[in-house]
């Protein structure tokens, strides 16, 4: 027989355990309880905001679940049949009805509010970003144009300062600085592509130009750590879609400025990377060429 009050104690203990787990979230943003299934490795300020939203939503869902399960177990224990006499029958209970009407509305309202805040922060576009990169997709590669500023209107006087273009023999490398606001302006030369770096936990479709001008999908990120990451096209775009890769290198702001200046002076991307310290052998993390992915075989010689 279950002792009186034990279901309530179980509910309290479970809630305390969830609260303790939530408090540990600040210790390791990507590893607390496995992130409740959220993919680890987010390297931008925006990915951290999305993780926080996911984590606390799951905590809220578990809290509601534990509360409901606790009531179910308490009712089945407290009011189980103990003889032939029926317990007191109640047609309605106003406090309970108010409770299960008001609480769900409050939970939904709070979740809606924090979802709107997180979505607004992730989609926020500033008037004067620190860095502007034009992403041009085409079958089946990428071109990255480092711009003097954002193209707020078709008549904007922003211009391309330096550029890197991929080919069947060369994986394009996009170099961006850490702790700076980076604005991406995307456009396609042919069909719809999708700009995706898994570690950013975020992707946006790249649309072709429209009749009225260039259709640009714009978003901003702030990289929080240095590293090298593979980028991919995440929209089925044709024969070599699966091999339409690129690489992102996040470096310090000083190295980034030096890299772009070298490109603007006529250096190739590998030569500019060598100037900022990427002088390692091919296939190493310090190589001036992509090492997380490789050029695809077009099999053109066979045809």
Automatic annotation (TrEMBL):
GO terms for biological process: ATP synthesis coupled electron transport. InterPro entries: CcO_II, CcO_II-like_C, Copper_CuA, Cupredoxin, Cyt_c_oxidase_su2, Cyt_c_oxidase_su2_TM_dom, Cyt_c_oxidase_su2_TM_sf. GO terms for molecular function: copper ion binding; cytochrome-c oxidase activity; oxidoreductase activity. It is a multi-pass membrane protein. Its main location: membrane. Binds a copper A center. The chain crosses the membrane at residues 53-77, 98-116. Its EC number is 7.1.1.9. Its cofactor is Cu cation. It catalyses: 4 Fe(II)-[cytochrome c] + O2 + 8 H(+)(in) = 4 Fe(III)-[cytochrome c] + 2 H2O + 4 H(+)(out). It is an enzyme of class 7 (translocase). GO terms for cellular component: plasma membrane. Residues 1-25 form the signal peptide. Residues 128-262 form the Cytochrome oxidase subunit II copper A binding domain. It is found in: Cell membrane; Membrane. Belongs to the cytochrome c oxidase subunit 2 family. Subunits I and II form the functional core of the enzyme complex. Electrons originating in cytochrome c are transferred via heme a and Cu(A) to the binuclear center formed by heme a3 and Cu(B). This is Cytochrome c oxidase subunit 2. It comes from Allocatelliglobosispora scoriae.
């Amino acid at each position: 027989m279950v002792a009186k009050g034990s279901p309530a104690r179980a509910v309290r203990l479970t809630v305390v355990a969830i609260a303790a787990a939530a408090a540990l979230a600040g210790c390791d943003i990507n590893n607390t309880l496995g992130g409740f299934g959220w993919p680890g490795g987010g390297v931008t300020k925006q990915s951290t905001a999305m993780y926080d939203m996911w984590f606390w939503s799951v905590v809220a869902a578990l809290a509601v679940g534990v509360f409901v399960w606790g009531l179910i177990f308490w009712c089945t224990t407290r009011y189980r049949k103990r003889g032939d006499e029926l317990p007191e029958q109640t047609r309605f209970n106003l406090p309970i009805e108010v409770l299960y009407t008001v609480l769900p509305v409050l939970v939904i309202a709070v979740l809606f509010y924090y979802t709107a805040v997180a979505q607004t922060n992730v989609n926020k576009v500033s008037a004067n970003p620190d860095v502007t990169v034009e992403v041009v997709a085409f079958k089946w590669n990428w071109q990255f144009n480092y711009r003097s500023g954002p193209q707020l209107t078709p008549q904007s006087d922003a211009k391309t300062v330096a550029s890197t273009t991929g080919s069947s023999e060369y994986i394009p490398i996009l170099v961006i600085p850490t702790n700076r606001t980076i604005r991406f302006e995307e456009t396609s030369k042919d069909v719809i592509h999708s700009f995706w770096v898994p570690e950013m936990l975020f992707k946006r479709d790249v649309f072709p130009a429209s009749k009225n001008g260039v259709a640009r999908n714009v978003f901003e990120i702030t990289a929080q750590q240095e590293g090298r990451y593979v980028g991919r096209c995440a929209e089925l775009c044709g024969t070599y879609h699966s091999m339409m890769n690129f690489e992102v290198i996040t470096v310090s702001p000083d190295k980034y400025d030096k890299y772009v200046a070298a490109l603007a002076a006529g250096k190739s991307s590998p030569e500019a990377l060598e100037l900022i310290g990427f002088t390692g052998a091919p296939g190493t993390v310090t190589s001036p060429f992509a090492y997380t992915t490789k050029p695809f075989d077009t099999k053109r010689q066979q045809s």
